[in-house]
Amino acid sequence: MSNSFTFDDKWNIRFMQQAQIISTWSKDPSTRVGCIIVSPDRFVLSEGYNGFPHGIADTYERLHDRALKYPRVVHAETNAIVNAGRNGAKIDGGILFVTAPPCPTCAKMIVQAGIREILYIDLDKTKKIPGWRDELNISFDMFDEVGIPNKAISKKYLFTKAQLDAIRNKQMMNLK
Question: Could you say which of 47, 77, 135, 145 is catalytic?
Answer without folding.
Answer: 77
